[in-house]
Amino acid sequence: MSEIKSFKYDLVIVGGGPAGMACAVSAYEAGLRSILIIERDAALGGILRQCIHNGFGLHTFGEELTGPEYAYRYERKVKEYGIEYMLNTMVTAVGADKTVTARNEELGIFRIEAKAVALAMGCRERPLGALGICGRRPSGIFTAGTAQKYVNMMGYLPGREVVILGSGDIGLIMARRMTLEGATVKGVFELMPYSSGLARNIEQCLNDFGIPLKTSHTVVEVHGEDRLTGVTVAEVDENRVPIDSTRELIPCDTLLLSCGLIPENELTLGAGLTLDRRTGGASVDMNRQTEIEGIFSLGNVLHVHDLVDYVSDEAAVAGAAAARYIMGAVAQSVAFDVTASFGVRYTVPQRITELCDLTLYFRVGAVYENKTLTVRFGDKLIYSRKCARLLPAEMQTVRLTRDKLAALGATSGEIKVGLE
Question: Domain total for the chain?
Answer without folding.
Answer: 3
